[in-house]
Amino acid sequence: MYIPTFDDVLAAHDRIKPHIHLTPVLTSRMMNELTGAELFFKCENLQKAGAFKARGASNAVFSLTDAQAAKGVATHSSGNHGTCLSYAAGRRGIPCTVVMPRTAPQAKKDAVKGYGGRVVECEPSTTSREAVFAEVVKETGAEFVHPYNDHRVIAGQATCSKELIEQVSGLDAVVAPIGGGGMVSGTCLTLSKLAPQVKIYAAEPEQADDAYRSFKAGHIIADDAPNTIADGLKVPLKELTWHFVRNHVTDILTASEDEIIEAMKLTWKRMKIVMEPSCAVPLATIIKNKHVFAGKRVGVIITGGNVDLDKLPWQ
């Protein structure tokens, strides 16, 4: 298992800069008053393809040799990684196949196709996802770009917190959502080098809390098919992301479905930021745990904004 280093992050940032946005950091006096903290929202919902995963996907795709790229890329994804891999593959002019749960938001399936990717559907479980994917790779010979358990992807995701640290000085903590752990791992990779004093908190739905339980138990606990409105956070940790989580994360905090929806509505209403349910989990946990963050300068990573507008969670 190759563990990426900060040199990999620097190389990734140089590699992907032509293909990503330097996303803004927004603040809100109302959010600060509500939480008792000073919050800085890193808006990856405004990233290319609508999610932070454009970073890792672009780094993986543009790291390939010409011979590897010729066979295309493939992955399994609940949505954003597949969309972003299709985006990156399109930029390089190579084919991309994405295995997606049949229950994934139609908006995300359409987005994959919109960037030229091919969607192959599976049942909404890790077991089905991996079985169908194995058939796709056998058929195409494509390069597998894992959504998070891939050193190229983690190095790419790490560029987000690198930008955040350059944009905002004096942070005390950073909070990011956790599913498989790609963004959190990237955050750990960057902050352990650039700002080791900054505490890293992962935020997770109560109904998909396998990372929380893994963190407390000291070993990976994987759920096969958790049920939460935060569809991007249903996947389990893997050995590479677990390395970063167990060595660098301060704590994992959880929020209920209602708390996630309220945080999402609040951000839409007060900050005019379109975010997915998965991306509302950090704010939900900050509101729920005000005593942890009171008086602190806190970076909050809004990981994506690809919402199915016909199926909003409060409708």
TrEMBL record:
Entry keyword annotation includes Lyase: yes
Domain Tryptophan synthase beta chain-like PALP: residue ranges: 16-304
Superkingdom per UniProt: Bacteria
Keywords of this entry: Lyase, Pyridoxal phosphate
Pfam short name (any one): PALP
A molecular function (GO) term: L-serine ammonia-lyase activity
Essential cofactor(s): pyridoxal 5'-phosphate
GO biological process, one term: D-serine biosynthetic process
CDD domains (alphabetical): Thr-dehyd
Family statement drawn from the similarity comment of this UniProt entry: Belongs to the serine/threonine dehydratase family.
Protein name stated in the entry: Serine dehydratase
Organism placement in taxonomy: Bacteria, Pseudomonadati, Pseudomonadota, Alphaproteobacteria, Hyphomicrobiales
